[in-house]
From TrEMBL, chains A, B:
UniProt-listed SMART domains: RHOD
Organism in which the protein naturally occurs: Desulforamulus ruminis (strain ATCC 23193 / DSM 2154 / NCIMB 8452 / DL) (Desulfotomaculum ruminis)
Name of the protein in question: FAD-dependent pyridine nucleotide-disulfide oxidoreductase
Database matches in SUPFAM superfamilies: FAD/NAD(P)-binding domain (SSF51905), FAD/NAD-linked reductases, dimerisation (C-terminal) domain (SSF55424), Rhodanese/Cell cycle control phosphatase (SSF52821)
Lineage: Bacteria, Bacillati, Bacillota, Clostridia, Eubacteriales
Single GO term (MF): oxidoreductase activity
UniProt keywords, alphabetically: FAD, Flavoprotein, Oxidoreductase, Redox-active center
Cofactor or coenzyme needed: FAD
Amino acid sequence: MASQKILIIGGVAAGPKTAARARRLNPEAQITILEKGKYISYAGCGMPYYLSGQIHEFDHLYSTAYGVKRDPEFFKAERGVDVLTGMEAVTINRADKKVLARNVDTGEEQIFEYDKLVLGIGSNPITPPIENLGLKGVYRLNHLTDAVRIKEAMEAGEANDVVIIGSGFIGMEALDSVFSPMRAVTVVEFKETLLPGILDADLGQLLYKNLYEQGLEGRFGEKVLRLEGEDGRVTKVITDKGEIDAEMVILAVGVRPNVKLAQEAGLAIGETGAISVNEYMQTSDADIYALGDCVENTHLLSGKKVFAPMATYANRQGRIVGDNVNGGKSTFKGVLGTGVLHCMGLNIARTGLGEKQARDLGYDVETALISTFDMTHYHPSSSKVIFKMIVDKKTGKILGAQGLGKGEIAKRIDVVATQLYYGGTLDDLLNLDLGYAPPFSTPIDPIIHCGNTLKNKLDGVAKTYTAQEVQEKLERGEDFVLLDVRTPQQFNMRNIQDQRVQQLTLGELREKLDQVPKDKEVVTVCVMGSRAYEAARILEGAGFKDVKFMEAGMEGWPFDMD
Amino acid sequence: MASQKILIIGGVAAGPKTAARARRLNPEAQITILEKGKYISYAGCGMPYYLSGQIHEFDHLYSTAYGVKRDPEFFKAERGVDVLTGMEAVTINRADKKVLARNVDTGEEQIFEYDKLVLGIGSNPITPPIENLGLKGVYRLNHLTDAVRIKEAMEAGEANDVVIIGSGFIGMEALDSVFSPMRAVTVVEFKETLLPGILDADLGQLLYKNLYEQGLEGRFGEKVLRLEGEDGRVTKVITDKGEIDAEMVILAVGVRPNVKLAQEAGLAIGETGAISVNEYMQTSDADIYALGDCVENTHLLSGKKVFAPMATYANRQGRIVGDNVNGGKSTFKGVLGTGVLHCMGLNIARTGLGEKQARDLGYDVETALISTFDMTHYHPSSSKVIFKMIVDKKTGKILGAQGLGKGEIAKRIDVVATQLYYGGTLDDLLNLDLGYAPPFSTPIDPIIHCGNTLKNKLDGVAKTYTAQEVQEKLERGEDFVLLDVRTPQQFNMRNIQDQRVQQLTLGELREKLDQVPKDKEVVTVCVMGSRAYEAARILEGAGFKDVKFMEAGMEGWPFDMD
């Protein structure tokens, strides 16, 4: 085993990580990476920050923290790994344990032997059935060269009207890096809300409300049919509902696993279309491992296979494959779909199952949506955050959580992800001992506050409507009182314009209970939800029979965008 | 039960929280809070930010997020709770269920009946046996009035030489709020390192190194004997080792639970000296509950009783007592000693057991100390962080973690705290699905990186010395090679001055192996530890028999402070 040949196909993230770990464990192995592209071991996730100018040097995207470029010379000197760039693997001969590769420049072919083969061959951007994608001004954001081209176009002033097609992770990161109040930027999303695979529709609406206020134009439930151009340059995006001026188009409709090489070699492909691997990251051929964007993973909650091409999985799996090609038995247990991104000043994160996903899986779910501050409200750095949590009514198990806001979201979702790993219940969450000091949190952390609200709902202490439900009631013309308990100043800043709205501050409510009609349903509303909850309890205590409060208050209200 | 009398003694944090929850559950209860002080429901934890000027308005420390002062009128109007300030409870008559209280201004006595009594009577600052504590210029930082007095003194220019006695949470928060390069600030700590109850000694040393470089003077293992003054004002602090000029002295040697009232009423006091309660927060009298700083808690890892006066426990317990005085069965399971603070630009956090604590409890522990970036190193906001993790070798269970640095620490320690709640192992930690994007993390999160290092140590793949061990080897005059594999620039910036140091960059090492003496022990060192680990593996691969690397690199080296 000592001098075995470890051949790795793919040199972006999964491959180099595997090589580094394998080398540390086995000084004598012959480790070779074949990469068809020009760059290796680069930070694909860093492209948006290069585009936005936050990272000035292109080189930084493939340099170590100590400033050394991660090129083939680096891999040879520091890792003892042979890297061949511009070398595309063409076929795998499993019987003879050989890989035929071709130099992408010269066409020269070369055969590489292996004892263990590792496929870190990534994913490919999906090309949607849109006419004229070949026009100039049409970009993707999947490879380093894409980032360079977009940046050049922006610097050349060729990005005044930008249309981004798709609002998944890559679409939103592209948005974050190209958005400017000086540009007209439109996102066209085939589904009904932003980040449809990541955020539940209610959070997607709140996200859009915020981005809209910053100047983003969103088109939802709209399908791009074709592009139009002049002199070979794109000028318009034509959808099934209209047209949009476009000087730059960024295609971001997702990726699919790159499985050609594996499929042609007869390796098992899973139900998701990605390469099937066991918990040791072995394919159906025990001497061939696969990892990263080209494989499918097991969702720890649903038990189902999922295609989840995330950089963190590629890196963590690299360590596991590095162990196992050297005889180890390390395992990758599965994923929870945790994801986080930053877009136009907002932090966005999720873990576990979304509400609809959970319902589709047959769970009887309860949810809570809260708005609060990410640290003590009196601290000058405090910012608003929104959290949603989803729980299985039957077992009390938390199924997922999502967050959105200017404040700290990411690590609280990590806390929930940790919960989910252990199959923890809501009661467990409420017993967590999370750190508190004014610059970091509130005495009861926002994520526990969210859990408390959910528990109050399950216990029947808190009876709520979502903003969407209140909006539907208003639209249906139902007779009820929408009791706004904020201060007059807060009310005047922003309010729901409707005859059914009544104003009474929380401080007045106990004294003026007789002003609230007792024979009608009363829905209380405030800024973030806590005073409305208090008001609802006061009304119920006073004998009102049909009282609810609107979750997350006006902070959770996405319906006043023009 | 509906119209029962709930009497709450103490109006700072635990009491008001209890009252609010009890009221929401029971609209008809008669709820009364007695508070001997002037202010109620105030943010004691916010005092340092008021002192430092980050919070401008004193009122903000006891106002709601929507700007309403939390005074008795507020509690009456919004909560339906009667609050009597300046009213000190003197005795509890358990047989008759009555409390005798006295107006602190008029001396007038009044009797309050209860069905359920709640003690949220907090803690008192310890007065150490130091002579002349009555001099002017001597302060504490335990009550809002303390903060006001210190601020007035600073504004009057009476804080040029400041001595803080004690470096626990309150001492460090006082330091954070009074420190300025324009003042001479000294911390005198009886134990050997900063924050001795919170951080292990190695992190305490690294913390001090950083604060020292900013201008703090620390005196360790030093006991204050007396103060000296002129014209009734303090001028000097006299210790067992010398004297320090002092215009202002802040006493912060800790707090002890306020148990007088409970003790005199015959309620059980626990082994820690705090009030003993069960998981329902009931004292030895089932109709009397106690919570917050006056009670002892169960440590979830050691199973032992601990006195842990943290604001977050007071608040979480308030919810539980609010439930239970209304017939609920909510439980508080225990604590993990999670704590976090910000001091002079550094974030500091811990959870679970410290290394020494764990050893004292009989655990056979392994630890890892790492230095890394809190997000991708190429992101302009990335900052350095140090994490330490402690694991039980026998079971693989994680026992605790600590963090220190300018970057994000707090929420990663929360992730470990969540782990600890479930008794998770190191392998569990490595399987967590934490969110990644460049502005939030590294593809392998720092806390998982710490876990990987720990696993490498347990597996014998990583053999390390701590900085302290290397320093001891150097001081003992041992013959070994300290192989520095950083770039020459990095070496020249800061290095260990010793003949035994040899320089070879990691990139050169494979080619120049013959320059490293094979018959000596080799200890590799770099900036943060990762290149030194790589170098150690290269040397071992090349047949070197006795190789180790220094954990956390020069970032973990606290010994060059002058």
